Amino acid sequence: MSKYKILIADDHAMVRDGVKNLVSKNAELQVVGEAENGKQAIELFDTLQPDLMILDISMPDMNGMEVSKEILAKNPGANIVVLSMYEDGDYISRCIEYGVKGYVIKNESGSELDYAINSVLQGKNYFSRHVQDVIFRKYTESVSKKKPKDDLVKLTQREIEIVKLIADGLTSQQMADKLFISPRTVETHRANLMKKLSVKNAVELIKKAQQLELI
Question: Which positions does the record annotate as the modified residue 4-aspartylphosphate (predicted)?
Fold first, then answer.
């Protein structure tokens, strides 16, 4: 039975030795090459066509993200697992965007890398629990930043009363009589509401107020 070919790319010899030691414990895996910089990693990948590459991000010549981007652009089905000290959400997101199938932080246990290798070779993605937490935090922050400004609209109690009366079809005079204020004050409130909710007419005003659950 042929073994899965593993290529290791890391500029630290001690890290490569540690990964080789881990890989050697699995009888189905075989390290076929080692790269100590980005350009060498691409050259060895093209030459050896490994079943999986374990790739560091911080390397000379080309960093791991550049390496993964170039390799996956030419080989969309390539199996790349990033093993890096970087746990920044932007680094992880870019790697995922390029098509990296696994990501493990270097200070995590060896079993995490083992799980990643086996999962990816089985056609799955594997991101360690810590990496998943980083991805989730980045996602929630992104959603929060993209929230429409409308969600932050705050209406006064009087403005809410005006909106409800507009929805009931009352005229400015009828609203003025009901609220014991002048028609001019009603019109001022209406204008402020249009501005706050970024709408142009009563129909849009009612619709937006309903969307924001103001009425």
Answer: 56
How far apart are alpha carbons 69 and 82 in whole angstroms? 12
> Do 88 and 178 have their domain in common?
no
Nearest Cα neighbor of 55 from 2, 4, 116 is 116
CB 78 within 8 A of CB 72: yes
pLDDT tens-digit series, residues 128-141:
988 998 888 877 77
State how far the Cα of 116 lies from the Cα of 80, in Å rounded to an integer.
10
Can you read off the two tokens belonging to residue 61?
């010549």
- Quote the pTM value: 0.66
Strand order in the sheet with 102-105: 29-35, 4-9, 52-55, 80-84, 102-105, 126-127
Q: What is the DSSP letter of 2?
A: P
Residues 40 and 88 in one domain: yes
Instruction: Report DSSP state, residue 30.
Output: E
Strands (E) located in the chain: 4-9, 29-35, 52-55, 80-84, 102-105, 126-127
Residue 48 shares a structural domain with residue 122:
yes
pLDDT tens-digit series, residues 88-110: 888 999 999 999 999 999 999 88
Domain boundary among 145, 163, 178: 145
